[in-house]
Structures are given as structure tokens and as C-alpha cells.
Amino acid sequence: MSPKRVWYVAYGSNMDLARFSCYIAGGRPAGAARAYPGCRDRRLPEVSVPVELEGVVYFATESPVWAGGRAFYDPGASGRVFARAHLVSAEQFSDIAAQKMYRQPGADLNLSQVLRRGRAELGSGRYETLVCPGTMDGLPVLTFTAPWRVRDLSWNTPSDSYVKVLCRGLLEAGAWDLPAVARYIAACPGAAGAWTARDIAELVVG
């Protein structure tokens, strides 16, 4: 039996509530080149909480929105991920995932495989792999990423604008201060060596 509510864990730009709201209610985020159709159910998340996951966030491919590397999650790598969990309906999660996959929202995903096995590949593209790292408060924790692993492809440095929105979302969550957030992002593959924690902190405050 599929759950009616799930925790959608965002580890990229959807950690920022203002941006994430466009995936729910529809609209064009500030500075974005693309408008999102939104979910069938346009109610905002019941609650959003900070979470930490096992694994690694890394930056790869080239985002047409951000003009730099975008975030992907490798749950099998050794590390710790700062993220934000939004409590949404299973229908909303399906519509959010569709928009991230460049598909039209409106169809419910079959979550049986990801809930049973912890992983389900719906396609070979970006964000077409569902991952269930566990449960929280009795509800499944779900996110999506690419099918590849962190060392399967070349990394790509994230842009200033992308780094800023990631920081904004993490700081909004309230669990980490700016030095911790800056150190975390600076250590992610793709950012490491291109961004320092000091550079990130200065970008946010400046």
C-alpha cells in the first residue's frame, strides 16, 4: 500500500523554500530561465526540517539554468549530506519528480520498488533515479538523483548563483551556521578545489 505522505528530501536548489514553492504552486523562480507548471495539489509543505543523510553530494554536468555544475546525490559514497526534508503528499512528490525529470506532472509514480529496495531507476537521465534512504516519523524519506556514482563522470564547478541558493536553503533550515554550511559545500566534489569555505562565506554575506 502506497503512503499518502512522504518526506521529499532536497539537497540542491529545492532546499530554498522560495524556489521550491514554484515546483508546488507553479511559476518562474527569480533569475530562472524556465517556468514550472507546479503540482496538482498546490498546498505548500506541511513542514520543512533539516536532515543529514549518509552519502555525498557532488556537482556534475552543465545546468542550463545555473550555468555550472548541478548537485547530485550518491547514497553509496562515504560522507555526510546536509539537506532539507519537506513533508508533502505522495501525489506532490510525483509531480515534483516529474518536473525535475523534464516531464509533465499529472501522473502518480509507482513507489513500490523504491520503498521495497531503496532504489528505483525510472530512466537513464538526470534525476530519474528514486532513492529511499530510510524513514522518519514513520514516513518514507524519498529523493531523486542520477543513476551514476560520484566517480563515474567528470565533476563540474557550481556557479556563484547556485552556491548562493544552496547556502540560503541550508541557512533557512536553521540547523547549521554559515561557517558550517560554507565548509560543507566547499568540500563537495566539484566544488572542492574551486571554492573555499572563505570564498563561499564572503559570497553569501557580500
Structure description:
By secondary structure, the chain is of the alpha+beta class. 29% of the residues lie in helices and 27% in strands. The protein has 6 helices and 8 strands. It has helices at residues 17-25, 90-100, 112-117, 160-173, 178-187, 197-205; strands spanning 5-10, 48-54, 56-63, 68-74, 80-89, 119-121, 129-136, 139-145. Strands 2-5-1-8-7-6 form a 6-stranded mixed β-sheet. Strands 3-4 form a two-stranded antiparallel sheet. A hairpin with a 7-residue loop joins strand 6 (119-121) and strand 7. Helix 4 (160-173) packs across helix 5. The radius of gyration is 16 Å and the shape is globular. The N and C termini lie far apart (49 Å).
Question: What structural class results from the helix and strand content?
Answer: alpha+beta
The count of helical stretches stands at: 6
Q: What's the alpha carbon Rg, rounded to whole Å? A: 16 Å
Q: Rough shape?
A: globular
Q: Secondary-structure element sequence?
A: EHEEEEHHEEEHHH
What is the strand arrangement across the widest sheet? 2-5-1-8-7-6
Strand content: 25-35%
- Uncertain stretches of 5 or more adjacent residues: none
Portion of residues within helices:
25-40%
Straight-line N-to-C gap: 49 Å
Mean pLDDT: 95
> How many E-type strands?
8
Largest sheet: 6 strands, mixed
